[in-house]
Design goal:
This protein has two domains: 66 residues; 108 residues, no CATH class. 23% of the residues lie in helices and 34% in strands. The chain contains five helices and ten strands.
C-alpha cells in the first residue's frame, strides 16, 4: 500500500504523536458523519487509532477516505453565539458543530438538528440562558446529551435515550439556566429530513 505521508506527518515507521492520533480521529468522525463509514467501522477504527504506535498504522485507517479536514476547508468555529428574543433560530443541514455554543433566548425557540451536521470535535459545550421558550436537539446515533449541569426553574427536560449500541461521536454538555421553558432531546421524526437512497 502507498502511504499517504501528508496525512500523518512522516514515514510509516515513525512513532505517532498525540496530535497525529487526534488528527486521524477527527477525520474518522467526519467520515462517519458524512456516511462514508458505518458506525461499526468507526468504532473499530477509533479503537485502532487510539492505540496506534506509528504513523503507518494511522495511515491505513484513512487510506480509503477523502482528503483531511483541514484540506477540505471544513473548520469549526471555537465559539458561536445565538441571541434572540421572540423569534426562532435553527441550525440544520450541513452546519458545522462548534466547540462551544452560547445561547441567550427569551420567548423563542432554538433548534439544533444534528442529523446531517458536520461533527469535527467530540464535545460541544452549550452555555444556555433560556427564558420562556424551548431548546430542541434532534439527535442521531452516537450523539449523547448531558443536562446534568443545567439549573431548571419551573421548566422541564424531555429526553429520549440514545441508542446504546452506537459509539459516541459527539457528547453535548448543556450548562446554564432555564426559566419557564423546556428542553426536548429526540431523534428526528420519520418522514422528515433527507431521504436515504434505496438499496
Amino acid at each position: 500500500m502507498a502511504w499517504d505521508l501528508s496525512r500523518t506527518g512522516g514515514p510509516p515507521e515513525v512513532r505517532a504523536s498525540h496530535a497525529d492520533r487526534d488528527r486521524v480521529v477527527d477525520m474518522l468522525r467526519v467520515a462517519a458523519g458524512d456516511g462514508r463509514l458505518t458506525w461499526e467501522e468507526l468504532d473499530e477504527r477509533l479503537e485502532i487509532a487510539l492505540s496506534a504506535r506509528t504513523v503507518g498504522e494511522l495511515a491505513v485507517l484513512t487510506a480509503d477516505l477523502p482528503e483531511a479536514v483541514g484540506e477540505s476547508g471544513v473548520e469549526a468555529q471555537e465559539v458561536v453565539r445565538i441571541a434572540q428574543e421572540g423569534s426562532s433560530t435553527r441550525r440544520g443541514d450541513g452546519w458545522v458543530v462548534p466547540r462551544r455554543l452560547e445561547i441567550r433566548s427569551a420567548w423563542g425557540e432554538v433548534t439544533l438538528d444534528f442529523t446531517d451536521a458536520v461533527i469535527i470535535r467530540d464535545t460541544l459545550d452549550i452555555d444556555l440562558d433560556l427564558l420562556a421558550g424551548s431548546l430542541k436537539l434532534l439527535t442521531r446515533p452516537g450523539v449523547v446529551v448531558d443536562t446534568g449541569g443545567l439549573v431548571t426553574n419551573y421548566s422541564r427536560i424531555k429526553a429520549r435515550g440514545a441508542a446504546a449500541d452506537a459509539p459516541v461521536v459527539l457528547r453535548v454538555r448543556i450548562t446554564g439556566e432555564i426559566d419557564y421553558g423546556q428542553i426536548v432531546v429526540r431523534p428526528p421524526r420519520r418522514g422528515f429530513g433527507r431521504r436515504r437512497p434505496q438499496g
